[in-house]
Design a protein that fits this description.
Distance between the termini: 61 Å
Strand content: 5-15%
CATH superfamily: NAD(P)-binding Rossmann-like Domain
Helix content: 40-55%
Number of domains: 1
Largest sheet: 7 strands, parallel
Order of helices and strands: EHEHEHEHEHEHHHEH
Oligomer: single chain
CATH class: Alpha Beta
Shape: globular
Number of strands: 7
CATH architecture: 3-Layer(aba) Sandwich
Length: 279
């Protein structure tokens, strides 16, 4: 039997990438896992992949959006088999690149609603089930962008930095209920969301220059870190913001200026807006 046999886990954004790697790590140790996401076809394929892992517990899915508190609450309830939830991973997120001076309020709100509010909803509703059943472990997926500035990615950076403070505050508050709350800050990981960064040589090489361990990450690097923080091996660890980034956090944020110049032009990238009153 696996170390997590009989435990119930919820993973948001579990249909692919880091979320799927986290779900796979839990399943490999015997946990029952529910993955949540917006794409039912992707969830179905992911659930089939998880179900064939040797020793895996019960695998379920829930189609929903983390920007909806009602959806997150429903997913947490479904994951709580026999009224118990042991592990939750707030992974679902979205990105975006836009210079601050031209960032639309709607874009800012979308990033905050998905990344920061979605994490809040997950901690709130998973935490309620955990508090009722004696405790548990929650891990949020933050980012190197929450630790180091990334020019032209202000909304994303702020949402991830907000997650890390939310994690610390939640850990301080929920420890009395035997609930541990931590976050992992990935660096550049090979996922669908990061494909543009990986495929643009100038930007990718700049990322590598910022890493003492000079390689991009893979989803399993993050999944195993999350598995550790949510497992019994980490029973005295809470409020930790763990960088898993090849040491990127020791240096500076990456230079994604080429994307800004391509998408918004030189004037906006260089802060030269001379078109009259701002809109």
């Amino acid at each position: 039997m696996g170390v997590l046999s009989g435990q119930n886990a919820l993973v948001t954004g579990g249909g692919s990438g880091i979320g799927l790697a986290c779900a796979g790590a839990f399943a490999a140790d015997g946990a029952n896992v529910l993955i949540m996401g917006r794409n039912p076809e992707k969830l179905k394929a992911a659930a089939s992949e998880l179900a064939v892992i040797e020793g895996a517990g019960e695998i379920n899915s829930y189609t929903g959006d983390v920007s909806s508190e009602a959806d997150v609450a429903a997913a947490a309830e479904k994951a709580s088999l026999n009224g118990r939830l042991d592990i939750a991973v707030a992974n679902a997120g979205t990105g975006g690149l836009s210079p601050i001076l031209v960032t639309e309020t709607s874009n800012w709100d979308e990033v905050m609603q998905t990344n920061l509010n979605g994490t809040f909803y997950t901690i709130k509703h998973a935490g309620r089930w955990m508090a009722q059943s004696g405790g548990g472990a929650i891990c949020a997926i933050s980012s190197i962008a929450g630790v180091r500035t990334h020019r032209f990615m202000g909304s994303y950076c702020v949402s991830k930095a907000g997650i890390d403070m939310l994690v610390r505050n939640s850990a301080d508050e929920l420890g009395v209920a035997n609930i541990r709350v931590n976050s992992v800050c990935p660096g550049l990981v090979e996922t669908e969301l990061a494909s543009g960064l990986l495929q643009t040589e100038e930007v990718f090489n700049d990322y590598l220059d910022c890493m003492p361990i000079s390689r991009h990450g893979v989803t399993e690097d993050i999944g195993q870190a999350v598995r550790f923080l949510c497992g019994p091996e980490a029973s005295w660890i809470t409020g930790v913001v763990l960088s898993v980034d090849g040491g990127h956090h020791l240096r500076r944020g990456p230079n994604v200026e080429p994307f800004s110049r391509m998408l918004f032009g030189d004037e906006i990238t260089e802060g030269r807006i001379n078109s009259g009153k701002p809109s």
